[in-house]
Design goal:
about 240 residues; 8 helices
């Protein structure tokens, strides 16, 4: 995806969001498990239309995502001291596969390219959540459909220590982010969505900082070439 001269770049520098207390996460997780079971029962007991099955599938997907967050909160102490050697490309591909049905039903074409087979030490659950948030942001930027380009490659930092690592790119051809807004998008609680809470990109920021990585965004709102590119760099060391 190419952009005209209006190029914007921002590094993640937002303050860390307050963690969800483990006791609260535990209380949330129990009814979530029940809700997921009820959704399966509703699907089994009724004869929904194709659209109804789609809505049920989306509901189950969102409940599983919330449940994943609470489980990660409960396991936070363990995860904090136990990063795992992981193939980032395979992890990213698994996230994309999870949302494949949603992308298709939203009229979004997914173009992928994986040119890195290296495994590095990462906090798997948290990185998966960061990928999910960025992907869903791209989906919301294209309510009438579009194209998402997802790439994973080996690379080095563009500046600083020139560390070796893995670069992940999520690019969409949505409406783009205005220049007056892009400098604020990593701030906690900042949102332009009517029902948003402003925590999605703040969480992504926290995760990338925890990996001592870099997060950049370029965006254009030009009529012909518009869209947004998020680039994540995860150091190998």
């Amino acid at each position: 995806m190419t952009f005209q001269n209006q190029r914007l770049a921002a590094k993640a520098r937002a303050p860390s969001a307050a963690p969800l207390p483990a006791s609260v996460a535990h209380e949330i997780n129990n009814p979530l498990d029940s809700l997921l079971n009820l959704l399966y029962l509703i699907e089994a007991e009724t004869n929904p239309t194709e659209k109804g099955r789609h809505y049920l599938s989306l509901a189950k997907e969102e409940v599983r995502r919330i449940s994943q967050i609470t489980h990660e909160t409960l396991d936070k102490k363990k995860a904090a001291v136990m990063p795992e050697r992981t193939n980032v490309g395979e992890l990213f591909a698994a996230v994309l596969d999870f949302y494949k049905q949603r992308l298709g039903s939203s009229g979004i074409t997914l173009q992928t390219r994986y040119s890195c087979d290296e495994s590095i030490r990462v906090y798997v659950g948290q990185l998966r959540q960061a990928f999910s948030n960025l992907l869903l942001n791209a989906v919301e930027a294209m309510p009438e459909g579009g194209t998402i380009q997802a790439r994973v490659s080996a690379g080095h930092e563009w500046s600083g220590q020139k560390r070796r690592g893995v670069r992940v790119i999520i690019a969409d051809n949505g409406s783009g982010i205005p220049s007056s807004t892009v400098q604020h998008i990593f701030q906690r609680f900042f949102t332009t969505k009517p029902c948003g809470n402003g925590l999605g990109l703040s969480l992504v920021t926290d995760v990338i900082q925890k990996h001592k990585g870099l997060l950049r965004v370029r965006s254009s709102t030009q009529p012909v070439r518009h869209g947004t590119v998020f680039s994540l760099f995860l150091p190998a060391a």
